[in-house]
Amino acid sequence: MQFARINDVTIHYQVIGAPADRPVIVFTNSLGTDFRIWRDVVVRLAGDYAIVLYDKRGHGLSDVGQLPSSIEDHATDLAGLLDLLSVKNAVVCGLSVGGLIAQSLYQRRPDLVGALILCDTAHKIGTAESWNARIAAVAKNGIASIVDAIMERWFTPAFRRPENTAYSGYCNMLTRQPVEGYIAACEAIRDADFSEAAKAIAVPTICIVGDQDGSTPPDLVLSTARLIPDARYEVIADCAHIPCVEQPEALTAIIRAFLTSIPPGDTNR
Ligand SMILES: O=C(O)CC1=CCC(=O)O1
């Protein structure tokens, strides 16, 4: 296990492969998850790419840090981690709020970002009303009180079968996040809007979405792809909000095809 002190926050991270020798893909997570969600993608990519995984503040084994925290704070944490690892021009793959963090990282530190994989994310996610309602529910009754509603957005009915032990495992992952970290991330998402910034993205970008995503539906992700100059757009079948868990093979194939199509030199490839 690896830990680093970044911006006064202990960040839990993992590096697979040698960043100096291989193109680097950095994965940044969704709300209510830790970096273990990427496992089935990482095992397929390891060897060809160096991989950086980390738990954003308020999640997994990372500290919650000072409150409140913003998407910009999360991006500054990720910049600190990449600086620590001497990584520049990385392929940044952000899932959901991780995609907001990726967009913010590009805005603040374009030297760190060679390409963007925006997975089940958007330039703006949800409304202030929906986030305030979720924050109030979690503050009053805990994360467990919303788990069924959230799982309907994360996973298709086929995955949510009671006999699927992976499904119960991911319910555990959600409910075991620190409440104050979860609420802080909801506030950060509520307050983030990259509608203008997305138009200025000038690195190769792909927007990917599950066809049954209940949190960032395909039409929303398509609207983000249309804001970003020359962005590509791919839909994954039989998949909701977390394709790295539900359709890792399909997601990996899209990532590989995208990275293969980028001219050498655009990233650290
Ligand atoms: O919990 C959800 O609704 C899914 C989600 C929204 C932002 C994020 O990171 O995950």
From TrEMBL:
<protein>
    <submittedName>
        <fullName>3-oxoadipate enol-lactonase</fullName>
        <ecNumber>3.1.1.24</ecNumber>
    </submittedName>
</protein>
<dbReference type="InterPro" id="IPR050266">
    <property type="entry name" value="AB_hydrolase_sf"/>
</dbReference>
<dbReference type="InterPro" id="IPR000073">
    <property type="entry name" value="AB_hydrolase_1"/>
</dbReference>
<dbReference type="GO" id="GO:0047570">
    <property type="term" value="F:3-oxoadipate enol-lactonase activity"/>
</dbReference>
<dbReference type="Pfam" id="PF00561">
    <property type="entry name" value="Abhydrolase_1"/>
</dbReference>
<dbReference type="InterPro" id="IPR026968">
    <property type="entry name" value="PcaD/CatD"/>
</dbReference>
<dbReference type="GO" id="GO:0042952">
    <property type="term" value="P:beta-ketoadipate pathway"/>
</dbReference>
<dbReference type="GO" id="GO:0016020">
    <property type="term" value="C:membrane"/>
</dbReference>
<dbReference type="InterPro" id="IPR029058">
    <property type="entry name" value="AB_hydrolase_fold"/>
</dbReference>
<feature type="domain" description="AB hydrolase-1">
    <location>
        <begin position="23"/>
        <end position="247"/>
    </location>
</feature>
<keyword id="KW-0378">Hydrolase</keyword>
